[in-house]
Every structure is written in structure tokens, then in C-alpha cells.
Specification:
Blueprint lengths: L1 H17 L2 E8 L10 E4 L5 E3 L5 E5 L5 E5 L6 E4 L6 E5 L17 H12 L1 H4 L7 E3 L5 E3 L3 H7 L1 H25 L2 H8 L3 H10 L4 H6 L2 H16 L14
Parallel strand pairs: 1-7
Antiparallel strand pairs: 1-4, 2-3, 2-5, 5-6, 8-9
Length: 244
């Protein structure tokens, strides 16, 4: 009985460790502004994620593991995962003299491309709408009450909002393409050329699944869709005299 309880306790602890999650925010060490699309990589498991527009990120880790944060134009830094609190990471531009440690320099093409694109379009991605605030000057008053609604309706605001939406979709699709590849799909289905393209277009992968699925789950998903694809499709019978 003691052995059974010991095994159950060990399994419970093991599952609890695996399910730990690191939450945090990455900011510019000088301006204190959030940094968008910073790459966060768990050096132990190689799992990675990127910060959102608020600089926030979520990464499944084990407590105490080393996490690398990289961003074009900034020093790459490492922090220990602390899953019991929100981690604040301050990154400094390369112009600042700091000692630099690089534990995981072999970034994937997707990570390099994301960092490059984030740097190229940093002005558009970091553009913020006017916020309503209280101004104590001249007896006090609220600023932005007129500016914010007008800006929302302005052409430039709408264009910037649309750009961010398209940028996010493009980055998500690029990540999906790193996992749902023609090479892997062809190996599991035997399809090639137009047949392969038709199959992958018929069964697109969702970004959330691409982010969370294991390699085994990914392969099972492709095989299941392959079986579904091969099933005979029902056809609606057309009466012989329907044209009369």
C-alpha cells in the first residue's frame, strides 16, 4: 500500500512540475516601455514564445530553468524561471555597455525573421492611440477626450490597426509553416505536388494548436486528416428527368 501511495505521489509531483508556467513582461531598460516580439527560449527544453504588444509572455517551464531573451538591437540576457511570480525582464540596447552572455545562439530561421521584422516595423508596431488623462495645469482638465475619438476614426489610425492585425496573422502563419511543413506532410501521406498542396489547403492548421501540440500530436493530426481525406465523399443524386 505504501509503495502504491509513493508511486501516486511521485506521478503527482512529476505532472505538477511539467505543468509549471512562467509569466512575465519584457521592457526596455531605459524607456521602461514594453518590447513587442521579444524571443523567450527555455534553454533546457528549447520551447519558445514571443512577447505580445504589451510585452507580456507565457512559457511552460520548470522552476529554476534558464530562459534566454533575445531581440534585435538589444543585449541577449538570461533569467532563472520563477513560476511563483510574474517575472519582469529589462533589456538594454547594444549601445549600453553591459556584460553579455549567450547560451543559445542557434536561433531558428523563424526566430531570426520575427526579430528582423519586428525591428523593421518597430515604429508602426509601437504606435499607440491617444490616452485620456487628467492635466492639472490651468485649473485641471482631461486631455485626449477629443483627440482619442477623432484618432480612432482617422484614416491613419485605421491603417495602423489593420497593419498590426495583418502583421500578427502573417507571423502566426509563418510559425505554423515551421511545424506543418510539406516535407513532413508528404512523408506521412505520400502526397506530392498539386495533391500535397490541395491536401494542406483543405486542412489548414490553427495557430494555437501549432504552438501547443507535441511532435507526436502533430503527426497524429496529419494522419487523422489523411484518413478523412481518403473517405469517399457523399454525392447528391440528381434525378434523370430533372431537366424536364
Amino acid at each position: 500500500m505504501r509503495i502504491v501511495l509513493l508511486i501516486c505521489f511521485t506521478l503527482f509531483v512529476s505532472v505538477g512540475v511539467r505543468s509549471q508556467t512562467l509569466r512575465g513582461i519584457v521592457i526596455d531598460g531605459e524607456t521602461k516601455q514594453p518590447l513587442y516580439l521579444v524571443n523567450a527560449v527555455d534553454n533546457a527544453s528549447s520551447q519558445s514564445t514571443a512577447t505580445d504588444e504589451r510585452g507580456m509572455f507565457v512559457l511552460p517551464v520548470k522552476n529554476g530553468e534558464v530562459i534566454s531573451f533575445s531581440y534585435i538591437g538589444y543585449h541577449t540576457i538570461q533569467r532563472l524561471a520563477t513560476t511563483d511570480s510574474v517575472l519582469t525582464v529589462a533589456m538594454f540596447p547594444l549601445s549600453v555597455s553591459l556584460q553579455e552572455y549567450i547560451l543559445h545562439p542557434d536561433y531558428t530561421p523563424y526566430q531570426k525573421d520575427s526579430a528582423e521584422m519586428a525591428t523593421r516595423y518597430s515604429t508602426e508596431l509601437n504606435k499607440k492611440p491617444i490616452k485620456v488623462g487628467f492635466n492639472s495645469a490651468n485649473g485641471g482638465g482631461f486631455s485626449g477626450l477629443i483627440g482619442a475619438p477623432v484618432q480612432k476614426l482617422s484614416k491613419s489610425y485605421k491603417q495602423n490597426k489593420k497593419f498590426k492585425e495583418n502583421y500578427k496573422k502573417d507571423q502566426e502563419q509563418k510559425f505554423i509553416d515551421t511545424r506543418y511543413t510539406p516535407e513532413l506532410t508528404s512523408a506521412l501521406t505520400g502526397f506530392a505536388g498539386d495533391s500535397l498542396a490541395i491536401f494542406m489547403n483543405t486542412y489548414p492548421m490553427e495557430y494555437k494548436f501549432a504552438r501547443t501540440a507535441t511532435d507526436l500530436e502533430l503527426k497524429m493530426w496529419i494522419r487523422q486528416n489523411y484518413k478523412d481525406y481518403l473517405k469517399p465523399k457523399k454525392q447528391t443524386a440528381v434525378p434523370a428527368n430533372s431537366g424536364q
